[in-house]
Design a protein that fits this description.
Blueprint: H1 4-12, H2 18-21, H3 25-42, H4 50-66, H5 68-73, E1 78-81, E2 84-87, H6 95-101
Antiparallel strand pairs: 1-2
Helix pairs in contact: 1-4, 3-4, 4-6
Length: 115
Amino acid sequence: MITNESIKAYINKMPGNDDFLALVDDEQDKIIFSSHELLKDHYKEKDITDRAVALQVLFSIEGEDEEYAKLKRHGITSYSVKGVSVTFEGGEIAASVIAILGKPRTGGAKVGRLI
């Protein structure tokens, strides 16, 4: 079962975890929660691992640090400022998570029964 403690233990073993470790416990819990919820929106809970959530947490923190995450959340795919142009490819989910869990499911048709 995935818990905040198991994810924190995993992140503690990973390189590049300084920004996460600099957060107070409450903020760590919030970013873990939001990252886990994001993954649950796109993958079945049984497929999500501590590793996937930990990678998503670090990806989310990095994106927030660089402020690109805000632009992506608002659907901006490219922008330019003073002659510098940036184009975003991909989405909110870390490429490393997609490599582990596969392509995220989309909002396709739901299967059900007609009565």
